[in-house]
From TrEMBL:
Residues 285-493 form the DUF6546 domain. Residues 1-23 are annotated as: Disordered. Pfam families: DUF6546 (PF20183). This is DUF6546 domain-containing protein. InterPro entries: DUF6546.
């Protein structure tokens, strides 16, 4: 058992037990031991930093490296001593909304509660930005990787009643994401022995996807230390895009943006949202960005539920379960990709629209990784000349890739329940590869193979091209399973979100019964 000692001593005192004195151990061994202590994170492990200066250096670095904060924690963050601020590399900021009772679990929040929730979120984000901006003004050195910020908003009651299989709080990044479904026995809320047997009421669904209106955008200060921003799929509630534009505009050093929004349910709202995304991508994303990843999630079963529900407002009965990508959004991302090193856009755009918008004079000097979803790679849209259309599409993709001299990997893919398909180009030290991987097969035409060979030659004249076809035989219960088994060379969704999608897919509704 390790004991705490006065910080005045330069090395830990002997415990009197046989063994090697701490100072006699090589420095590398001592650091390995301290790293192991920090990795195990036993209760009270952070207090070991008081043993001596050497321990403080190693353990404090691990202790402050990744902070998970809630609104009440901001006072402590504000008073963090200057010498510790440069140790913080990742902040996960969780805003919790007030819980609700079972009596209200099947209801939509009224205007008063919505405004109250908006005030909580606004105050939390404003206070966080003020604190981080004060760090910038002190001129302390920042880590080379910059500061990563992850934002989330949720209500603890969301997973208590109807949505037990869903993840709303921030994932700690450890484990396989499995939840203890043995305790999910709550017949009044549609759960019997770990399985969902009744659909939630429409108003309970709509509560999860309420809009968030920030009341603080004009007062947000500039923050120079944040280089990475993530808003993950566990945040079902939606920021107004105009508010998101304002928030991004205050992150003047942002290099990496990861957004995982949920698709709008109603067709008219989706059209307006797509128009807003066009403006966001073309006009409001910081010019400092080098990497963009956007994963638009959806839940087909909930979409169908809302479309068929008489409990939802009348206009929401126009809901579509299928995603029709707006060509303008694809064109906006195509233009923006010219200045990027990494771009992944899933479901929000159609790869055909992206390629169609690329002008013949464009050259992507920086782009190394590109991943896009393609409508053509959905098996449910197959027609008699589908294979010919796919080969034409892959040929056009190669023509564009020829103007990407630094391209290391490209993935054109799609996936959903029962289907997973991808065309993948990537290189290693010895070969370039094109791979067709999926639950169904396509024969690549000779002209497609020849043109992709030119892509490989352009990057490195010594790289031969290998063509591979790989069949996926595993069960695909969700688009998360599809992504998992496609082994895409470009990550298209965060690991924690992928775990969440797969867990939710394993506990789908087993009976077509509505409440």
């Amino acid at each position: 058992m390790l004991r705490q000692h006065s910080t005045r001593s330069s090395t830990p005192a002997s415990t009197g037990k046989p063994g090697h004195p701490w100072p006699s151990l090589p420095t590398e061994i001592r650091i390995m031991i301290l790293e192991a202590i920090a990795q195990q994170k036993h209760p009270g492990w952070a207090s070991f930093a008081s043993v001596c200066k050497e321990w403080q250096i190693v353990l404090a670095r691990r202790n402050f490296h990744r902070l998970t904060l809630r609104v009440p924690c901001l006072d402590g963050l504000e008073h963090l001593i200057v010498q510790q601020q440069h140790l913080v590399q990742h902040i996960r900021f969780e805003i919790e909304l007030p819980p609700y009772s079972c009596y209200r679990c099947s209801m939509h929040d009224g205007p008063t509660m919505v405004n109250y929730n908006n005030a909580i979120v606004s105050k939390g984000i404003l206070n966080l930005f003020r604190i981080l901006s004060s760090w910038d003004s002190r001129g302390q050195p920042r880590p080379e990787c910059g500061l990563s910020l992850e934002l989330n908003v949720h209500c603890p009651s969301d997973s208590k009643y109807w949505f037990k299989n869903c993840q709303f709080a921030l994932d700690d990044g450890e484990g396989d994401g499995k939840k203890d479904d043995a305790i999910w026995h709550d017949p009044p809320h549609g759960w019997v022995k770990g399985q969902q047997v009744a659909a939630p009421p429409a108003l309970a669904v709509l509560r999860l996807f309420e809009d968030i209106r920030l009341q603080c955008v004009e007062g947000l200060p500039e923050v120079k230390s944040v280089t990475s921003l993530k808003i993950g799929r566990q945040l079902r509630r939606r920021f107004y895009l105009s508010d998101l534009e304002a928030l991004l505009g205050k992150l003047s050093a942002l290099e990496h943006l990861l957004l995982e929004p949920w698709r709008e349910w109603e067709n008219g709202e989706s059209t307006m949202q797509d128009t807003a995304y066009q403006h966001l991508v073309k006009d409001y994303l910081p010019q400092t960005l080098r990497r963009i990843s956007v994963f638009e999630d959806s839940d087909h079963s909930l979409a169908v539920l809302l479309a068929n529900s008489y409990n939802a407002p009348t206009w929401r009965r126009q809901i579509s379960a299928a995603r029709n990508a707006d060509p303008g959004v694809g064109a906006a991302f195509a233009l923006r990709s010219l200045s990027l090193e990494y771009l992944s856009v899933s479901y929000m755009v159609n790869a055909e629209d992206f390629l169609r918008a690329c002008q013949t004079t464009w050259i992507w000097h920086r782009l190394e990784f590109l991943a896009l979803t393609s409508h053509l790679l959905r098996k449910d849209v197959m027609v008699w000349d589908h294979h010919d259309k796919i080969n034409d599409f892959l040929y056009e993709a190669a023509k564009v890739a020829l103007r990407m001299p630094n391209l290391k990997a490209l993935a054109l893919w799609n996936g959903g329940r029962g289907v997973a398909t991808a065309f993948i180009y990537h290189t290693d030290r010895n070969y370039a590869y094109i791979t067709w991987r999926g639950t169904w097969d396509v024969t690549l035409s000779p002209r497609v193979v020849d043109l992709w060979e030119q892509v490989a030659v352009q990057r490195n004249q010594s790289l031969p091209l290998l063509v591979r076809r790989e069949q996926i035989s595993e069960t695909i219960a969700s688009h998360g399973d599809a992504i998992h088994h496609l082994h895409l060379p470009c990550p298209v969704v965060s690991p924690s979100s992928l775990r969440q999608i797969r867990v939710e897919g394993r506990h789908r509704l087993t009976k077509k019964k509505t409440t």
